[in-house]
TrEMBL record, chain A:
Gene3D superfamilies: 3.40.50.920, 3.40.50.970. Residues 4-179 form the Transketolase-like pyrimidine-binding domain. This is Alpha-ketoacid dehydrogenase subunit beta. It holds the Pfam family Transket_pyr. Its cofactor is thiamine diphosphate. CDD domains: TPP_PYR_E1-PDHc-beta_like (cd07036). InterPro entries: THDP-binding (IPR029061), Transketo_C/PFOR_II (IPR009014), Transketolase-like_Pyr-bd (IPR005475), Transketolase_C (IPR033248). It comes from Tumebacillus lacus. Keywords: Oxidoreductase, Thiamine pyrophosphate.
UniProtKB/TrEMBL annotation, chain B:
Keywords: Oxidoreductase, Pyruvate, Thiamine pyrophosphate. It is an enzyme of class 1 (oxidoreductase). Residues 24-310 form the Dehydrogenase E1 component domain. Transmembrane segments: none annotated. This is Pyruvate dehydrogenase E1 component subunit alpha. The pyruvate dehydrogenase complex catalyzes the overall conversion of pyruvate to acetyl-CoA and CO(2). It contains multiple copies of three enzymatic components: pyruvate dehydrogenase (E1), dihydrolipoamide acetyltransferase (E2) and lipoamide dehydrogenase (E3).
Length: 326, 346
């Protein structure tokens, strides 16, 4: 089995999809000759040709809008948006069309496509290269949202997303694109959409995280053990829409305490929805209010401030302490 | 100017007399449909409606030039062209009656649900044409837009994509002079809309939108060109809507009533085609009267079909949100059923 980092696993997933399904088209800005600004599509145009891996004009609404027409007419477009913070020109296409094709046509047309976007901060990039507006899209019915935190899940979720009959927003944690390598099968496999993963079992408190924040949460869990002796369970949501209720609730029923961690601003972030879900399903299991550790409710700052804007292990530990000491 | 003038290029027409009569029949039916729809709204039997009277030649002329397999991406005023392309009249009525069934073109009829956000459907036409090209199919796509829509970013992005990718697509613009109340002079600084096409390396054609034959020939030319793999065309059909933007609008607030009256009396597309087929000796006043009576029957039957529909199936809120319903939607559907029942049967 090969060792791959997240970006390599994504490239490999795209390669398998392009090889196995002639309907798959990879398109976006700089994805062809240049292999993408993060090299996620490196070598794919050379291997599959410029009809399958397409450099488009610089136009996010056009890329997503054209992908709608392609999907409706039988293709499986996999558009890349260069950064999640560049999605805003395409939001109208996503909200008004991508998410609604099946509904509006009452099943006459469908819109299977996978919108890939590197999300979150932490790479010292310019403004609007570090946003995490995933909650905007979790709020939009008709699309699914996934966010892997490791190379194995990245490839498996990507292939599951491309197979999905519904549109999927595929968020890539760019800060950890090359942070570590895992064993990744070279052949096709999928990771089921809608399934979270308990990556570290524990008995005292549940931490819910995804993408970049997963490893930071594991670090905070380690600190909690060392400093307080608390045994923290860490759950990688992997799919943000639809949420894996069973795993989320199962964990908090066991531990009785929980903290949700995300990079996005705290207010009306996905953490609020998870707190509401726990409130609906596990209120009587709780020994303390569910905590939230998020980005501050201020626009994502310039990069000299990004390390204290996004949660780090220290802030997550602080959140754990508040809930444990309630 | 880089665009071509249809009147200069075409002498005569590609159409036979028989075909002109068929187009004429469609135009009369569409007009009668439109007038009945306005009246149905006035009497509270359908919701807000976007009337097209005055634009019948642009729509029927366009629709008549296309092939069955072609893809249409309409706006909310394209009832005429949609019906010519195979969307049943009852489906159109159902849409304006707020019924989800009104968005469903029949199987094999490639008409996308009406797009309400302006010009957003143009990139879809581009994508559908792109897919046809990749699959080696003989279908083309037509994206519809109005004069106001040419100011939207999606218009620009679609035109640019179409030009760069050399796609088998037609962007068909009905320039009716007003975007709700805003006249063309406040919409653009260019003299025509067709000339904008040059900026994208796309051929632009300006055609008299009140002349069904000219519109047909322009669209047929563009469609044939697209099918030969020679790329996209932008067509500006100069037309006029006699009435308001929708039944919720009052055009007398922003338009000189004499202007509308002038178009109606001097540039009416139905009068014009009728004169042409009368002159050719292939149509008579008796036939004309019979046609209007027949149109009334067709429209009346369709209205009755709409009114005979069972109550809307409540499950339609949920059943097409995803291929397979996630747990939370299943639960919400159950709650809906317990509170409101299933509504009409499927």
């Amino acid at each position: 089995m090969a060792k791959m980092n997240i970006i390599q696993a994504i490239t490999d997933g795209l390669r398998v999809a392009l090889r196995d399904d002639p309907r798959v088209i990879v398109l976006g800005e700089d994805v062809g000759v240049n292999g993408g600004v993060f090299r996620a599509t490196e070598g794919l145009q050379a291997e599959f040709g410029s009809d399958r891996v397409v450099d488009t004009p610089l136009a996010e609404a056009g890329i997503i809008g054209a992908s709608v027409g392609m999907a409706v007419n039988g293709m499986r477009p996999v558009p890349e948006l260069q950064f999640f913070g560049f999605i805003y020109p395409a939001v109208e296409q996503i909200v008004a069309h991508v998410a609604r094709v099946r509904m509006r046509s009452q099943g006459r047309f469908t819109c299977p496509m996978v919108i890939r976007a590197p999300y979150g901060g932490g790479i010292r990039a310019p403004e609007l290269h570090g946003d995490s507006p995933e909650a905007m899209f979790v709020h939009q019915p008709g699309i699914k949202v996934v966010c892997p935190s490791n190379p194995y899940d990245a490839k498996g979720l990507l292939l599951a997303a491309i197979d999905s009959p519904d549109p999927v927003l595929f968020l890539e944690p760019m800060r950890i694109y090359r942070a570590f390598r895992d064993e990744v099968p070279e052949e096709r496999y999928t990771v089921e959409i809608g399934k979270a993963n308990v990556v570290k079992e524990g008995t005292d408190i549940s931490l819910y995280a995804w993408g970049t924040m997963l490893r930071v949460s594991l670090e905070a869990a380690k600190m909690a053990k060392e400093q307080h002796g608390w045994d923290v369970e860490v759950v990688d949501l992997r799919t943000l829409s639809p949420l894996d209720r069973e795993t989320i609730i199962g964990s908090v029923q066991k531990t009785g305490r929980a903290v949700v961690v995300h990079e996005a601003p705290k207010t009306a972030g996905l953490g609020a929805e998870i707190v509401a879900l726990i409130n609906d399903e596990a209120l009587l299991s709780l020994e303390a209010p569910v905590g939230r550790v998020g980005g501050y409710d201020a626009p994502q700052p310039l990069f000299s401030l990004e390390d204290i804007y996004a949660p780090d292990a220290k802030r997550i530990l602080h959140g754990i302490e508040k809930v444990m000491n309630f | 100017m880089n665009h071509t003038d249809q009147q200069e290029r075409a002498e005569g027409t590609m159409l036979t007399g028989e075909q002109m009569i068929e187009m004429y029949k469609w135009m009369v039916t569409v007009r009668h449909f439109d007038r009945r729809a306005v009246n149905l709204q006035r009497s509270g039997r359908i919701g807000t409606y976007a009337a097209l009277e005055g634009q019948e030649a642009a729509q029927v002329g366009c629709g008549y030039a296309l092939e069955k397999q072609d893809w249409l991406f309409p706006t909310y005023r394209e009832h005429g062209v949609s019906m010519v392309h195979g969307v049943p009249m009852t489906t159109v009525f159902l849409y304006w009656n707020g019924r989800p069934e009104g968005c469903m073109a029949p199987e094999g009829v490639n008409v996308f649900p009406i797009s309400v956000p302006i010009a957003t459907q143009l990139p879809h036409a581009v994508g559908a044409a792109w897919a046809s090209k990749l699959k080696g199919e003989n279908s083309i796509a037509v994206g519809f837009v109005g004069d106001g829509g040419t100011s939207e970013g999606d218009f620009h992005e679609a035109m640019n994509f179409a030009g760069v990718m050399k796609l088998p697509v037609i962007i068909f613009c009905q320039n009716n002079g007003y975007a709700i109340s805003v006249p063309l002079s406040k919409q653009t600084a260019t003299e025509t809309l067709a000339e904008k096409a040059a900026a994208y390396g796309v051929e632009g054609i300006r055609v008299d939108g009140q002349d069904a034959v000219a519109v047909h020939d322009a669209v047929k030319y563009a469609a044939d060109k697209a099918r030969r793999g020679e790329g996209p065309t932008f067509i500006e059909a100069v037309t006029y809507r006699y009435g308001s933007h929708t039944t919720a609008d009052d055009h007398t607030r922003y338009r000189d009533v004499n202007e509308a009256e002038m178009w109606r009396t001097e540039r009416d597309p139905i009068d014009r085609l009728k004169a042409r087929i009368l002159e050719l000796g292939i149509w008579s006043e008796e036939q004309d009267q019979a046609l209007w009576e027949e149109a009334d029957k067709v429209v009346q039957k369709s209205i009755e079909e709409m009114q005979a529909m069972p109550p809307v199936d409540h499950n339609r809120i949920f059943d097409y949100s995803y291929a397979e319903l996630p747990w939370h939607l299943k639960e919400q559907r159950e709650e809906m059923r317990s509170l409101y029942g299933n509504g009409g049967a499927k």
